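Risk register update: the risk of archive-format incompatibility is retired. Evidence:
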Amino acid sequence: MGGEVRTFLASLRDGVRLWKLAPIIPALAVLPEFAQHVVEIRLGMFASHDAFTAFASAPARMSLGAIKMAGFLIAILLAARFWANRAEVARFWSLAGIGRKQVLLGFAVQVLCSIPGFFDFRFPPAGQFALSALLFVASLPGLVLMIGGLLGDRTSGLKDAYRNGWGQTLRMVIFTGPIFALLQQLHHGNHVFALGKPLAVVWGLMAWDALLVGLIATLVGTGFHHGYRGGKIKG
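Archived output:
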């Protein structure tokens, strides 16, 4: 148990260290996020709750939304890959050694488990919740397989992930889930707190908020790596 706690703390430490070791990785999440905030401020979205709602679907904002989501996801994946490359003394952007079959198969599992969510089965709320929970759990070994492939594991298969990957699954969920949920609430709170505030305060809050999104990306990506590797971490 003590080893797991130390690995978790190392994950938090390394998620912050990544800003110094490879600042371009968090920048992939920070810059598109801040660019969208610039558009939001210029639209006057933070003038009031009604203004925020009215401009939420503005084309300029929505177009940047897709870009920022792509940047955020790429930053997470590169953060995880950074630590795998560091352990192999490779350049941090190197994609050599990735288990492409594992990545694609794990991603396919994620997609398949999400498909039922697009259909209306007319279940009662309890039944809908049970189905969502079941599909979420069923998708987790696919996530383990995908992250393992990203980190260079080219030997594991889908059967291995479902049979032996639950320990890694649990670690990855613990290392990333609570941190993501906590910081996501802070991210949301920044927007709520900014409503109706003076422009200088809004600019400051949104600059901080963009940095926060970058921190979420580096902590989650590092958590995926450290959660998958467990105690076998090379700093």
